[in-house]
Amino acid sequence: MSLQSTSLRAALAGAALSLAGLATPAHAFSDDEARRAILDLRQQIQQITSQDQQARLQLADQIQALQHEVTSMRGELEKLRWEQDLEKRSTQDQSGGSHPQVGNPQEQAAYDQPMGLFRSAKYKEAAAGFGAFLQKYPNSQLASEARFYQGSSLYASKNFKGAIQELQGLVQANPQDPRAADALLVVAASQIELNSLSGAKSTLQKIVKTYPQTSAAETAKSRLKLLQ
Question: Which residues constitute the signal peptide according to the record (predicted)?
Answer without folding.
Answer: 1-28
